[in-house]
UniProtKB/TrEMBL annotation:
Entry superkingdom: Eukaryota
Protein name listed in UniProt: Peptide hydrolase
Signal peptide, first to last residue: 1-20
EC code: 3.4.-.-
Amino acid sequence: MKFQLALLKALIAAAVFVHAVPISRDELVENSAKGLRLLQLSEDGLPVWKTEDEVLQLLRSGARFFDVTETYEIQQELDKTSAESKNAGEFSTAATFSPPSHQSQVTPLLSRLSISNMQSYLSSLSGFNNRYYRSQSGADASAWLLDTVQDITRGRSDITASAFTHGWPQSSTIVKIAGSSSSGPVTILGAHMDSINLSNPMNGRAPGSDDDGTGTVNLIETLRVLVSSGFRPSTPLEFHWYSGEEGGLLGSNAIATSYKRAGTQVKAFLQLDMTGYVKPGTPEVVAIMPDFIDQGLNNFLKQLVTTYSRLPVVVNVPCGYACSDHASWFRQGYPTALPFEGIFGEDDPFIHSSGDTTSVNGFSWSHSLEFAKIAVAFAYELTA
Ligand SMILES: *[C@@H]1O[C@H](CO)[C@@H](O)[C@H](O)[C@H]1NC(C)=O
Ligand SMILES: [Zn+2]
């Protein structure tokens, strides 16, 4: 995750290959075969073709976008069949959620969350040279993740843990816990499991400990606590670990698009992306995102933090377009929220490099633990 710069506007204005008419199947096939990527740089703008080098330059400049190369046609179809399917702007929707009411069940679960488990998961995860979505070590990391969550969920016939494969080497991972009394709507918690070294994505070192190793291991540990406590949700509950967030929200966009196409109803989506850093000398907070979110879900999230965490809630500054995987769900009209490690400017400055490790001054497991608590509470309160 990285919030976008004003520079983006200039980049869009300078885009050359702008399309006034829908892109044909032939053009999609031809250009993808040449290695070009189709990027959506703003909600109103038209998608533009970029070479891999240009994509990298955009990432280095801090621009954020959806890589829609593999979802363009499905999205065109979705836009045709349902005029309001796509959430056009940053303006929030407002779903309704009842306040937290399961304190006596949730509170004991929170004390089962283990920092040393999270450390151990993160040590494996950050041990891969990088988790770039097109690299071999990125693919290996997704295989490790699948293995790990399969170990946790083994023996439960109401749970599936599977790879969601893509047209690139790294898979996303999806754990589905069936609802005992209903088949929908589904509650989803997400994090991205990929990482990037912006100077050398394919071969450079990118431990991605905070971005987004922390969110990734918060969710593994949340899953472990819920499963080991014997929790059986009444409505379906899912955990997603996305491939390719750093390359343009690729995994989450593919999955959110496929859920929309299947007509899947989503009650709520919570993204965890960077939960482990507190800038030395600044107050420790949970900073909730104000844009590309659902206001009703955000209010519920504030109540969760107040009820279950030791930290105060503050409203972050806007993150902007295509800022993290919640944007993929928001784009399909689903309610989203994102609690973040701190206010932008006080977040981890070492991300997207070989320096994103747990040994930086400011990294805090006790801070990250608060986000695992929020995740357990979110899952339990919305699906019990
Ligand atoms: C990318 O990886 C290389 C090789 O591991 C490393 O020397 C370099 O510092 C990394 N770049 C960044 C921005 O961290
Ligand atoms: Zn991230």
